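Hi V.,

You were right to ask for the full record rather than a summary. Here it is.
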Amino acid sequence: MPNTVTEAALADRIAALDDGSTRRIIAIVGAPGSGKSTLAEGLEKALNAQAPGRATVLPMDGFHFDDAVLRQMDRLPWKGAPDTYDVGGLRSALLRLRANEEDAIAVPVFDRALEISRGSARLVPPEARLILAEGNWLLLDEAPWSTLAGLFDLTVMLDVPEAELRRRLTARWEHYGLEPTQIAHKLDGNDLPNGRRMRDNSRPADLTVLQGDAPA
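Predicted structure:
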């Protein structure tokens, strides 16, 4: 597979984007359960160890529609699908970040324990120059997600075999106390189909990180 990198090499590639003033946005994309959040948080820690405060994570999940909105849309059982996000709000946040605004920029945060997004729950300070945006659909080549094309300075795809995704996602939903029938719907009715859609309909990433037993 071309353009594959290790996580350590990826940190170096991202660090090289930092010119000390211009804000850069890196998209980290993968299927549900691929480890996007873990990778982004690890990169944030490594980058800030070199220069404190220059990197921060922007999770796409903060832009989930509220459950009340999803009920009105009759889409709550499919929360996490492309049409269950405020793509316009995400695009506005990315444009503000790219504009290098001097003031701190408020962004929403998804509370997984409560399954809701909390608006303006975190501030991105002006000194944060490396924005690690992570989510399933950032490279999706379908409207309205395709309007994000061109907003990223580097794009990264996590490649994880579906069998490993199933194992991780099962463990995740067991941790949150779901019953076997609920887990079955989450996996085969939502998470894994979303992973296939992401894989098949996303624009190619600049770099790929292999995890699990993904083929080289």
